[in-house]
């Protein structure tokens, strides 16, 4: 959900002169931003299918491109944790994105049980723009083997403008 960290990040980007949209992908199922019970949070997060998230992103892009104050030729996407995986997938799905930054997003398994959902490793070859992946060496939820598989998938697909940085001794959410 749109917890205060995401709201603050959007405000700071806007103050720096960027047009910022922070979609609430979970609004249909609840508001996890006020919760502390992790299993209950994950139950809400799991309701957001790729189809729904892509529909929300597509709607946000359509709205953004219609605004005279936005430069539709310079659209980028960023996301943290669950949103990091969404970043990889959004850049593979939408040609409007010219760049993406994925902050410690899962690469091999999502948080939704929907069998139609893809994972970033599945779509590395479909990236339409460069993505910078930022990961933590000591992340218990994202194994470095997945990071290395993503590096190999990017290389095999010729996605030489994408890169992954692993921060030594850092934990998830660094």
Question: How would you sum up this structure, described in words?
Answer:
The protein is an alpha/beta fold and 174 residues long. The protein contains five helices and four strands, in the order H-H-H-E-H-E-E-H-E. It has a four-stranded parallel sheet with strand order 1-2-3-4, with helices on one face. The longest helix has 16 residues, at 50-65. The mean pLDDT is 94.
- Silhouette: globular
Poorly predicted parts: none
Radius of gyration of CA atoms, rounded to a whole number: 16 Å
Order of helices and strands: HHHEHEEHE
Calculate the terminal CA-CA distance, rounded to whole Å.
19 Å
> What percent of residues adopt helix (DSSP H or I)?
25-40%
Main sheet specs: 4 strands, parallel
Strand content: 5-15%
Summarize the structure.
By secondary structure, the chain is of the alpha/beta class. It has helices at 4-15, 38-45, 50-65, 82-93, 144-156; strands spanning 75-80, 97-103, 131-136, 163-167.
Itemize the secondary structure elements and their pairings:
Blueprint: H1 4-15, H2 38-45, H3 50-65, E1 75-80, H4 82-93, E2 97-103, E3 131-136, H5 144-156, E4 163-167
Parallel strand pairs: 1-2, 2-3, 3-4
